[in-house]
Design a protein that fits this description.
Length: 91
């Protein structure tokens, strides 16, 4: 239970810091320490959305939100399904 709460808090804080344009400053100071997968992924979703906010909420924010993270999601889910099928066949 506490692990879930911590994950939600990290995602929220990373998204908030990205929206306030502070995440990149922290990244420059901390280096690779800010690229922890969960916060880096939140940054990868929020940053393109904030960059294209001027184009509107539907075509800008909604359309560009997954430009970086979208392929990662597609390939990750596809690979997990493929590995699941292979595991099912061989067990």
């Amino acid at each position: 239970m506490s692990g879930t709460i911590v994950a939600i808090a990290l995602i929220f804080l990373a998204a908030l810091l990205t929206a306030l344009n502070l995440y990149n400053r922290i990244g420059k100071f901390a280096g690779a320490g800010s690229l922890v997968p969960i916060t880096g992924f939140a940054n990868a979703i929020v940053a393109p959305a904030m960059e294209h906010k001027a184009e509107g909420y539907v075509m800008g924010v909604g359309g560009k939100m997954f430009t970086i993270a979208g392929p990662v999601l597609v390939y990750g889910i596809s690979t997990s399904i493929l590995v699941g099928f292979v595991y099912f066949i061989f067990t």
